[in-house]
């Protein structure tokens, strides 16, 4: 099955919003929390509508930038306006079309682990909106940190947000109820739908700060934590040890 024939609820929701349906929204199903709605408008936010962690990440960007999981391109467009060369990456064909129509100059449609046609090197890999989750699982995190070595220019950095979702497993007394012999609690499964169209279930990783530091150090990176919000989301910079 070709990529273009796969369900693309994200792309179609974003395109509907771009075409004037301001009420367009994705339905989000998750195996560890209740279903919720994600308005398509969130993907089109301006700089001052972005959370502080995202604005901090944009300030820390440098050089040639890869915006991974770029969505509707809000971060890429902001960085372009600041004079940066940006490549926006998303696995959704519809999202890439939306970005192109909005003025993102370089947008590519493939998955994070697929090698780009050109062997580009980036000074910054940007992964926002809990963007580290794109790796899917802890095994995926290990794989990504190895893969990123082929993408980073000398002295390059990864700027990513992630969250500690242990609060989802607290009982009424605030104690954690986690099966220590089971999968890591931050490995969750999502399914997105828009109208009658639903994605296949996919893995998403919410890696806590300790996990990120441990995996980064094991892969030869330095981890620097640049901020945290009241939702237990944090911004981390990963750089290869010299």
UniProtKB/TrEMBL annotation:
GO terms for molecular function: methyltransferase activity. Signal peptide: none annotated. GO terms for biological process: methylation. Keywords: Methyltransferase, Transferase. CDD domains: AdoMet_MTases (cd02440). Pfam families: Methyltransf_25. Residues 65-156 form the Methyltransferase domain. The keyword Kinase does not apply. It comes from the Bacteria. This is Class I SAM-dependent methyltransferase. It comes from Hymenobacter algoricola.
